[in-house]
Amino acid sequence: MIRDITLGQYYPGKSVIHSLDARTKIIATLLFIVELFVVNNFWGFLIAAWAMFSVIFASKVPVGFIFRGLAPVFFIIIFTFVINLFMCDGKVLVHWWIFTITYEGLRRAAFMAVRLILLIIGSSLMTLCTKPIELTDGLEKLLKPFSKLGLPSHEIALMMTIALRFIPTLMEETDKIIKAQQARGADFESGNLIQRAKSLIPILIPLFISSFRIAQELALAMEARCYNGGGGRTRMNEIHFRRRDAAAAIVLILFLAIIIASRWI
Length: 265
Known about the structure:
Distance between the termini: 40 Å
Strand content: under 5%
Number of strands: 2
Oligomer: single chain
Order of helices and strands: HHHHHEEHHHHHH
Strand order of the largest sheet: 1-2
Shape: flat
């Protein structure tokens, strides 16, 4: 299940989505996340889901590969659904013992679950269709205007990209440690919640040590290549805003207008 995490991974391809400027994809992802919290009815979520599947189809990334990334967070989605299901007053649909399901609670729970699913897929799709170096350059370009206020745009972009890039690496390390501990007789399945939490200690300590080792190796590699930050740094491939990006921006504006209008449907 740990290997199923798709956030931070890059899926090579030559689709229209892959060829878009990294800035276009970053802004589109941020606006899509905002729009998910603007939506408040069935039609809005239906439009958002249709737009998401259209982008997935255009990206040529296998649908099964994208939905595989939902497996590690399936428990969080179910937990969110259950919490919202029983924590909302309104028209009672089912009442049993101390549990009461209302129409408003069911509606809110369903919307929150769909919102989480679309949010995770949208975020994963951005990293799947954008190379890490392009993601760094795009973030740096977007944050560059704030550098006049003293914000280290290059360093922030680099840190965010490294964090995304090393999510799959840390997940693979966790998977290796779990299998190594299981081979030595460790049991992570049986026992109550407290016992299971204690059984994670043999995983967390080696994982922290491995994380520091990876960070040190990365720092040494950057120093060996004379990395000195963003000042005077040149790029082999500069990112450019093309016609397809302008077309994507127009589509994005139309989508935003439709989503806002859906609130009054």
